[in-house]
C-alpha cells in the first residue's frame, strides 16, 4: 500500500505542478499539453498536425482550431505548410515558446533527473518496470471489458453468443 500511496502522491504533485505552470504562463492545462506535444514532436523530428493534436488530446477538430488560434495569437505556435503533404499544415513551436518552457520547466527537469540518479543503480530497472506497468494499466483504463457481463437485451436471443458466424 505504501508504494501505491507514494504513486498517488506523485500524481497529485504532478497535476498540481502542471496547473501552476499553466497558470503562470496564462494558459489552461490543454494549452500547456499542446505546447508539450508540439515540442516533443519537434524533438523527435516528426511533424505534428492539428488532427494529430486533436487525437492525442481527445478533443474535436473545432476545439483544436480554437486552441491553436489562441496559442498562435499568444506567440507560442505557428502553422506552416506540411513538408510532405501540400494539403495539410503542421504546428511548430516558436522560439519564444521553447524559451518559456525551458525557463519554467528546465530547473524542475534537472532536479527530477537528480532524484532519478539518486536511485540505486540496481533498483532502477525494477522502478522503471513498475512505473511502466502502472502507465500501461492507466492507458487501458476504460478500454477493457467490464468485470460483470451486461444483461441480454429484452427480446434478444443470446444463445448463440460467442458462436462463430
Automatic annotation (TrEMBL):
<dbReference type="GO" id="GO:0003700">
    <property type="term" value="F:DNA-binding transcription factor activity"/>
</dbReference>
<dbReference type="GO" id="GO:0006950">
    <property type="term" value="P:response to stress"/>
</dbReference>
<dbReference type="InterPro" id="IPR000835">
    <property type="entry name" value="HTH_MarR-typ"/>
</dbReference>
<dbReference type="InterPro" id="IPR036390">
    <property type="entry name" value="WH_DNA-bd_sf"/>
</dbReference>
<dbReference type="InterPro" id="IPR039422">
    <property type="entry name" value="MarR/SlyA-like"/>
</dbReference>
<protein>
    <submittedName>
        <fullName>MarR family transcriptional regulator</fullName>
    </submittedName>
</protein>
<dbReference type="Pfam" id="PF12802">
    <property type="entry name" value="MarR_2"/>
</dbReference>
<dbReference type="InterPro" id="IPR036388">
    <property type="entry name" value="WH-like_DNA-bd_sf"/>
</dbReference>
<feature type="domain" description="HTH marR-type">
    <location>
        <begin position="1"/>
        <end position="136"/>
    </location>
</feature>
Amino acid at each position: 500500500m505504501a508504494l501505491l500511496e507514494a504513486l498517488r502522491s506523485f500524481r497529485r504533485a504532478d497535476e498540481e505542478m502542471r496547473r501552476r505552470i499553466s497558470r503562470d504562463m496564462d494558459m489552461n492545462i490543454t494549452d500547456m499539453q499542446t505546447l508539450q506535444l508540439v515540442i516533443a514532436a519537434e524533438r523527435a523530428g516528426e511533424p505534428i498536425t492539428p488532427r494529430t493534436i486533436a487525437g492525442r488530446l481527445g478533443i474535436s477538430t473545432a476545439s483544436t482550431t480554437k486552441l491553436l488560434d489562441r496559442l498562435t495569437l499568444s506567440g507560442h505556435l505557428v502553422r506552416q505548410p506540411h513538408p510532405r503533404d501540400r494539403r495539410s499544415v503542421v504546428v511548430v513551436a516558436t522560439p519564444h515558446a521553447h524559451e518559456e518552457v525551458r525557463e519554467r520547466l528546465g530547473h524542475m527537469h534537472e532536479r527530477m533527473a537528480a532524484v532519478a540518479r539518486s536511485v540505486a543503480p540496481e533498483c532502477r530497472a525494477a522502478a522503471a518496470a513498475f512505473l511502466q506497468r502502472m502507465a500501461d494499466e492507466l492507458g487501458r483504463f476504460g478500454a477493457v471489458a467490464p468485470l460483470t457481463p451486461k444483461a441480454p437485451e429484452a427480446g434478444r436471443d443470446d444463445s448463440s453468443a460467442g458462436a462463430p458466424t
